[in-house]
Amino acid sequence: MSVPEGFFARHTRLVRPPLVPEVALHLADDVSALWQAMEDDGGGAGDASPFWAAAWVGGQGLARHVLDHPDLVAGKTVLDLGCGSGLVGIAAALAGARRVLASDVDPYALAVVPLNAAASGATGVEPVGDVLDADLPEVEVVLAGDVFYDLRMADRVRPWLFTAWVRGAVVLVGDPGRSQLPEGLREVAGYDVPDSGVDAARRTTVWRLP
Ligand SMILES: C[S@@+](CC[C@H](N)C(=O)[O-])C[C@H]1O[C@@H](n2cnc3c(N)ncnc32)[C@H](O)[C@@H]1O
């Protein structure tokens, strides 16, 4: 499936998420209208929800944390797991990461990440597909914004993040406190994500393994 030329210009608008105004993203106000556009004007909606069309609160908190603590990623190779719009990986690139792999299974996400990186003035962000079933890529930092949003994904992500950590990667997770979040994480920061006009203000936390 390929995303038609101009799809994002026609069906999204460039938005700076309230907690992370450094980053500009092609987002949608009306997800059901976007879903229809993916059927009519895109390559089909497929099985995936258009998660890439929102800046999730867990991702916003993690992106803010990385921008405020550039030493976490500066000069390093970083993986943004479940990148969606690319928000977290783009923040890492702006904070000085040497190379960012932005991983998602959704072809729309993989297509929008380079546009969002360019709109944000970020370089070195490379979209990559599913890494959960592949060998662990050679990365020093894994950033995971809002990846515990459903049970199936959480069950795949939990052991994968643990393996990355055992192999020496720094693992940071942004999450508003979902029930699927693993136990034993260390809380490193908390943020109130301002009301976006769609979602009310919400508290989110940055966690570190272990
Ligand atoms: C809730 S969204 C979070 C997006 C972004 N990190 C943020 O915080 O705004 C989760 C993303 O994980 C992606 N995803 C689902 N399964 C995946 C997999 N096996 N590998 C990588 N990404 C996956 C979804 O397509 C979706 O874009």
Describe this structure in words.
The chain has 210 residues and is of the alpha/beta class. The chain has a single domain (7-208), classed as Vaccinia Virus protein VP39 (Rossmann fold, 3-Layer(aba) Sandwich), CATH 3.40.50.150. It is 31% helix and 22% strand. It has six helices and nine strands; from the N terminus they run αββααβαβαββαβββ. The protein has helices spanning 7-11, 31-40, 57-68, 87-94, 107-120, 151-166; strands at 13-15, 25-27, 77-81, 99-103, 125-128, 141-145, 170-175, 186-193, 202-208. The protein has a seven-stranded mixed beta sheet with strand order 5-4-3-6-7-9-8, sandwiched between helices. β4, α5 and β5 (125-128) form a beta-alpha-beta unit. α3 runs parallel beside α4. The longest helix has 16 residues, at 151-166. It is globular and about 45 Å long. It starts with 6 loop residues before the first helix and ends with a strand. The mean pLDDT is 92. It binds S-adenosylmethionine (SAM). The site of S-adenosylmethionine has 26 residues, from α3 and α4. S-adenosylmethionine (SAM) binds at residues 48, 51-52, 55-56, 58-59, 81-85, 87-88, 103-106, 109, 130, 132, 145-147, 149, 153. One of its GO terms (molecular function) is protein-lysine N-methyltransferase activity. It holds the Pfam family PrmA. InterPro entries: Ribosomal_L11_MeTrfase_PrmA (IPR050078), SAM-dependent_MTases_sf (IPR029063). Keywords: Methyltransferase, Transferase.
Query: Ligands bound here?
Result: S-adenosylmethionine
Output the CATH homologous superfamily: Vaccinia Virus protein VP39
Mean pLDDT: 92
- The span between the termini is 38 Å
Number of domains: 1
- Alpha plus pi helix count: 6
The CATH C-level name is Alpha Beta
% residues in beta strands: 15-25%
Helical coverage, percent range? 25-40%
Order of helices and strands: HEEHHEHEHEEHEEE
Number of strands: 9
Strand ordering within the main sheet: 5-4-3-6-7-9-8
Structure classification: alpha/beta
Q: Which ranges are low-confidence, i.e. pLDDT below 50, for 5 or more consecutive residues?
A: none
CATH topology: Rossmann fold
Shape, per Cα inertia axes: globular
Radius of gyration: 16 Å
Pfam family, one: PrmA
GO molecular function: protein-lysine N-methyltransferase activity
GO biological process, one term: methylation
InterPro entries: Ribosomal_L11_MeTrfase_PrmA, SAM-dependent_MTases_sf
